[in-house]
Design goal:
Layout (H helix, E strand, L loop, with lengths): L1 E5 L2 E4 L4 E8 L6 E8 L6 E6 L6 E3 L7 E6 L4 E6 L8 E11 L9 E4 L3 E6 L1
Parallel strand pairs: 2-11
Antiparallel strand pairs: 1-3, 3-8, 4-5, 4-9, 5-6, 7-8, 9-10, 9-11
Length: 124
């Protein structure tokens, strides 16, 4: 599966962004999809994940309560809405599809297809 992430940009602290991840290829609707982020000099970290049918969502503590992950399988797209953005949210955001169908995890190693990333920069 090929993934295309978009929606990043420069935003002031307190603002909001909606990231999109559009997939092409295999049966996207059978796979959990997640968002990860990587700041300069840091490891790629988990942000949020949604199950194949949207019934289950998980968030990292760093974005919990101010983020919403959702999906539209008819459009092969997963979204990540982040509100109340903070400078520490600055990173390249990547979407990824789980290696196995009908499974949801937060472990980066369990995701096999990655998009190219979209830059999010939050100014203070």
């Amino acid at each position: 599966v090929q993934l295309q992430a978009s929606g990043g940009g420069l935003v002031q602290a307190g603002g909001s962004l909606r990231l999109s991840c559009t997939a092409s290829g295999r049966a996207f609707s059978r796979y959990g999809t997640g968002w990860f982020r990587q700041a300069p000099g840091q490891e790629r970290e988990f942000v949020a994940v949604i199950s194949w049918n949207g019934s289950t969502t998980l968030y990292s503590d760093s974005v919990k309560g101010r983020s919403t992950i959702s999906r539209d399988n008819a459009k092969n797209t997963v979204y990540l809405q982040i509100n109340s953005l903070k400078p520490e949210d600055t990173a390249v955001y990547y979407c990824a599809v789980h290696r196995r169908a009908l499974v949801i995890t937060t472990n980066r190693a369990d995701f096999g297809s990655w998009g190219q990333g979209t830059q999010v920069t939050v100014s203070s």
